[in-house]
Amino acid sequence: MNQKTLKNVVLVKSGGVPTAAEVVTTNGTVFVNPKIKSGDYQDMGNGMMGSTKTFIDPNWINAEFDIPVQMKKASALGSAPSIDELLKIAGLAETITAATKVEYKPGGTGVGTGQIKVYTDGYVRALTGVAGNLKISGKVGEPLGAVFSVKGFMASPEATAEANPTVTLDINMAPIVSKVTVLTVGGSQLNADSFDLDIGNKINEQYAMDLSAYYLEDFDPTISITAVKAIGTDEAAWTDYANGMVRSIIIQVGAAGSMVEISIPYAKLKDVSESDDAGNVKISRTFRAEASAGNDNYTITYK
Known about the structure:
It contains 2 helices and 20 strands.
């Protein structure tokens, strides 16, 4: 009997074992391909070629993979979204204001504490010590999306027979990036058609006797914005680039009550480029989301 990819369930928990309640509604099949530490060596001295050999460390098993999602609105104002455990694993601190909003920003402690179970048609692979990075992407005419790139350790590479849990998926809608989406730089609305925020987590691995862990060494968030170039007006991007100007960036996708807002108070250009798009000039800006007062590089708000 063939294994079916549609029967793919992902459970995620920061700081504990996930249950069916911690299901993540993905928008693509998630595969876990384990890697086992290996290396090569040669026995020298007999003059023979082709003597390279492989060694395996069966105790060093890990996996890296992506979890694609839509950034669906929360079920109610002041309630955490269904991807909250993934956000915590990516190192974001959660602040809930009852009946009003939920904020996520750097400074969380969830990196390296995550546990993930990925079921595929009656078989499961489990990971511990999971850490991750987050990239949020918005493109006009499409739902706001994100990809979590995660790393974790495994006890064994093979999947274990275990029935898929019965889960309730998130049926909320993700806000659509559209003509009415707000995207301002320094208070001025851009004719943007896409943006990408990469929170830039630098995840390192420690492996030693009686030790295996992933940890966050640093983070370097950047945001790239592509827009239809406005004659004259958008020349200011080059001036800002040359002068190292600091600008605030606000992105608001969706209407109040189902909005996802990204705010970057201290953005500085690190690259500007222009290109042709069917006879029109496109201008791309890449900003570094710098900190001005500690962990205020960016804030993601559901409100």
